[in-house]
Amino acid sequence: EGVAEEIEEETSPIENVAEVSEEPGADEVEDDDDLIDDEILEIFVEEAEEVLETIAEFTPKWKADRDAEEPRAEVRRAYHTLKGSGRMVGATVIGELGWSVENMLNRVLDGNIEASDDVFLIMETVTSIIPELVKDFESRRKSILNVDALAAVADALSKGELPPPIPSDLY
Q1: Which residues of the chain register pLDDT less than 70?
Q2: What long-range pairs does 127-136 form, CB within 8 A, spacing at least 24?
Q3: pLDDT tens across 108-146, in order?
Q4: What distances in angstroms separate CA 16 from CA 21, 23, 92, one per listed residue?
């Protein structure tokens, strides 16, 4: 009796919701939010393109000399950037997939796993679909790519486990 009645008395029903949303300038705020979102989106897309260029530049160098520190560090940093910027703008599919590859590459850097052919294969497969994921995010549509299967491969490799096969069809 006592607590429930006190809560009901202190909590007033929501009234005049229409009045709140029709305040002068409410449309301007929405337009500003859209503008900010579009600007952030544009920056994210540009950054993703730059990151992909870095990966394209340094992956072959690293693959040719698997002990080379600079290309290994650059590729890992690129995936770190994809993870961070993806998460920051709400591109969670890109952010989480980027994290899976970054985590795997961290295990390579700390010597827990080798830079094996499987590591390069999953990295190259993920890299090849990032442009489509970015386009999906830019168009504000849900991706139909099976990124969970790719993340599972990177996760297994990061743990030193035998990875599941990379699906031949990601759709």
Answers
A1: 1-36
A2: 127/52, 127/55, 127/56, 127/59, 129/170, 130/48, 130/52, 130/82, 130/94, 131/48, 131/52, 133/91, 133/93, 133/94, 133/97, 134/44, 134/45, 134/48, 134/49, 134/91, 134/94, 136/93
A3: 999 999 999 999 999 999 999 999 999 999 998 999 999
A4: 9, 11, 36
CA–CA separation, 13 vs 84, rounded Å? 41
Q: What is the CA radius of gyration of the chain?
A: 23
Q: How far is CA 120 from the centre of its chain?
A: 19
**Within the chain, how many helices (H) and strands (E) appear?**
7, 0
Rounded (10°) CA dihedral 77, 83, 88, 94: 140
Name the residue with tokens 């503008």: 35
The structure tokens 């449309």 sit at: 27
Residue type, position 69, single letter: E
**Among residues 160, 66, 76, 152, which one has the least CA distance to residue 113?**
160
